[in-house]
Specification:
The chain is an all-alpha fold. Helix content is 63%, strand content 0%.
Amino acid sequence: MTVVIIAIWELSLPESRHNDADLRGLARAVRRMREQLGMSAEELADATDMSRQRIDALEDGRLDPTYEQLLALAEGLDTQVSVLVALAARLKKSGEP
């Protein structure tokens, strides 16, 4: 039997302050970089000290990350925040999945 424990704050993720297209662009950028590195979402969660649920929410465009979370993501993906944001903008503009 598998028991899954989710912290209560994971169930009520903060509301987004950005438009959905911005979050979807960032979501696609994070997922693309993670997959290019051959990382699983669980491995990224471990590398960033975030929960798997938070990584899933981010990659689904449901989480508006804090600056600290962006820094952790960039470090976990072995890149810089500026590269991650530039890729997100490019993906948003191109409409690529």
